[in-house]
Write a structure and sequence with these properties.
16% strand; alpha/beta; 231 residues
């Protein structure tokens, strides 16, 4: 009833199905669409999280060939549909309230116990333009639920990079070269690095490399969603 009254006073439509928004917690996304966000339960590589050809395969070919600097990537869903829309609304449309229901998805991910939770940082120019770091909001929720210390100042972005989506794999790595730096003592810490979305994994891989070089004992990665190859 409270949701219906609110929608009468402040009417809004769900951007996914165009029905009336009926849930103040996930507004503007309606309850029916929010329930479409499903956990990815397919067979995946135990390190990078990409799908593998068989449920009996522990690692993908790429991780067998060259082990990444991180221990494992955890993610809730594939980067499609409603969760993609919700992340875009939070990230690019300034609907910060969606950070809370999105962050709750991490509660069902069986994340490892770590000493510190570190969000993937934004460059200061992008942070000023966006006005908040969505990954920091997600990391705060994880820190509160797990008891691990939230550290937002240890990892910084020192270079304003081009958007990764328009670049090839080689150019992505070049784009991120010397883009991140560690400015606090993290030696011996087991770290959970938090991002909203993982596409190719180049950004979190570079962050993990820098963190390991600075002395982190382990780097695990948690994200809401991951881009998966189309069948």
């Amino acid at each position: 009833m409270f949701n219906k009254i609110l929608n009468l006073i402040f009417p809004s439509q769900c951007p996914v199905c165009e029905a009336d928004s009926d849930n103040r917690y996930t507004n503007p996304i309606c309850s029916s669409c929010w329930q479409q966000i499903k956990k990815f339960n397919g067979s995946r590589c135990n390190i990078c999280g990409l799908p593998v050809v068989s449920e009996f395969a522990a690692l993908c070919a790429a991780c067998i060939k060259e082990k990444p600097h991180f221990e494992k990537i955890y993610y809730y869903s594939s980067y499609t549909g409603v969760i993609k829309e919700a992340i875009h609304l939070m990230k690019f449309n300034g609907i910060r309230r969606l950070a809370n229901p999105l962050a709750k998805l991490f509660d069902d991910m069986h994340l490892p116990q770590c000493d510190a939770v570190i969000p993937v940082p934004l460059h200061r120019i992008k942070l000023i333009a966006r006005e908040f770091n969505q990954t920091a909001a997600l990391a705060k929720h994880i820190s509160k639920n797990t008891g691990a210390r939230l550290v937002t100042s240890a990892l910084i972005k020192t270079k304003l990079t081009q958007p990764q989506t328009a670049l090839s794999g080689t150019d992505r790595r070049k784009n991120l070269k010397k883009a991140f730096a560690v400015c606090e003592d993290i030696r011996g810490l087991k770290i959970l690095l938090v991002d909203d979305v993982i596409t190719t994994g180049a950004t979190v891989a570079e962050c993990a490399r820098v963190l390991k070089k600075a002395g982190a004992s382990e780097v695990h990665i948690a994200a809401l969603a991951r881009s998966l190859p189309k069948n």
